[in-house]
Amino acid sequence: MAAFRGSAVPRPGRTPNVQISSKRVVVPFEDNRHLTKLLGEYDSHLALIEDRLGIEAHAHGNVVILNGSGAACDIARDVLEKLYARVSEGQHIGAGDFDGLIRHARDEVEPDTGQAQIATRRRVVKARTPAQSTYMRALDKVDLVFGLGPAGTGKTYLAVAYAAQCLERGSIERIILSRPAVEAGERLGFLPGDMREKIDPYLRPLYDALYDLLPPEKVERGLETGVIEIAPLAFMRGRTLANAYVILDEAQNTTSMQMKMFLTRIGENSQMVVTGDPSQVDLPFGMKSGLVDAVTLLDGVPGIEAVHFTGADVVRRDLVARIVDAYDKQK
After folding, report:
1. DSSP string, 139-195
2. Beta bridge mates, 244
3. What is the DSSP string of 37-81?
4. Cβ neighbours of residue 238 under 8 Å, at least 6 residues apart?
């Protein structure tokens, strides 16, 4: 059955950014069943290609016809062919996969690096921006990585994904998740429930990522046995963390002393990832963020990398990117 362009793809407040044709490219595909999945419901993925690359794209039978600038058409053809190959292998694809490949191509990522990925048994996570690729390679290369940038850039999710991959491969024995509970002033004793129930609200994004990347039963079993540990920052003092993957989220809300305490917990065969947004510090006025302090002090130290994300790396949705950009302009 031929793929078709439906009429139910309105994008409120947005008009197609279509250039005058300078090149026409016809991209053939063998299997219309795979092609239908590639193009998305009502050819929504073609609409995304048009919007991102400023070309015209429409399906006819078992081919996709591209009209626009030569460079943009070449990118579109490459993206379609790569994602068609994934669909043919039984992989699920979505708008984010198109967006990621287009962003990498437009930013001219070097061919020998390309789009990085993290694989767990449940999911293959591919970088959606060049900064995400840089971050994922840093996770694979050094033992301490700082991920800094606004919400929606994937810095926490990718850290959890890499931790899950390491756990499945057996290169670490446990995952330790931590976060400063600034809103509760670290005085967790006044909250109802046991320690896990007290800290759960602050670690929800980390839980969500774990359940997305690992089978639910494995997450529950890991929490019960201590293979996956929830450790409030205030309870990390005095420990040495060996054979572990340790993630500190929302680190902009640590003090300099807390950050020093946390970083010096790293033991043999352990890796640490510290994530946060320096623009959203909730510490008392005038108190310096331990995250900002650490990144400055440790700049150039071997075995440590800091990866900076910007509003251009927001992958949550376009609206989030516009919100981040508006706030950045206010500074």
Report:
1. HHH-SEEEEE--TTSSHHHHHHHHHHHHHHHTS-SEEEEE---GGGTT-GGGSSS-H
2. 174
3. HHH-GGGHHHHHHHHHHT-EEEEETTEEEEEE-HHHHHHHHHHHH
4. none
Q: Can you tell me the mean pLDDT for 232-257?
A: 90
Give the number of other CB atoms < 10 A from CB of residue 324: 24
pTM here is 0.69
Q: Is the CA virtual torsion 306, 310, 312, 317 positive or negative?
A: positive
Check pLDDT > 90 for residue 239.
Answer: no
φ, ψ dihedrals at 131, nearest 5°: -65, -35
Query: Alpha-carbon distance 62 to 93, whole Å?
Result: 19
Q: Which two three-digit tokens encode residue 174? A: 């446990």
- Asked if 280 contacts 252 with a C-beta cutoff of 8 angstroms, the reply is yes
Mean per-residue pLDDT, 317-326: 64
Q: Which long-range contacts (CB under 8 A, 24 or more apart) does 195-200 make?
A: 195/230, 195/232, 195/235, 196/223, 196/230, 198/232, 199/230, 199/232, 200/230
**Contact between residue 73 and residue 23 where contact means Cβ atoms under 8 Å apart:** yes
| CB-based contacts of 44, cutoff 8 Å, min separation 6 | 9, 95
pLDDT on residue 176: 94
DSSP 251-265: GGGS-HHHHHHHHTT
Q: What pLDDT, on the 0 to 100 scale, is given for residue 16? A: 42
pLDDT at 192: 59
Task: Record the tokens describing residue 60, joined without a space.
Answer: 């006819």
